[in-house]
Design brief:
Elements (H helix, E strand, L loop, with lengths): L4 H16 L8 E5 L1 H16 L9 E5 L5
Helix pairs in contact: 1-2
Length: about 70
């Protein structure tokens, strides 16, 4: 799938964790390796810039050799 399908999938996963399963955002750490690291950065940056009430920003990220500048 082309961009932004990956970001929409990541948002859906975060929504499921926080709204359906009841996890608090401060208990979620996003982890990504290579392109997944880039997706983790994109997800967190998008959440911070847009400030959606239903999509809280996760506590942090762990990036393993992210493909980004």
């Amino acid at each position: 799938n082309g961009f932004p399908a990956q970001l929409v999938d990541a948002l859906s996963g975060l929504y499921y964790l926080t709204q359906t399963l009841g996890f608090a955002a401060e208990n979620i750490i996003v982890v990504g390796d290579s392109a997944g690291g880039h997706l983790a950065i994109t997800l967190c940056r998008y959440l911070i810039c847009e400030s959606f009430p239903l999509f809280p920003v996760p506590r942090g990220t762990i990036l393993l050799a992210p493909s980004c500048d």
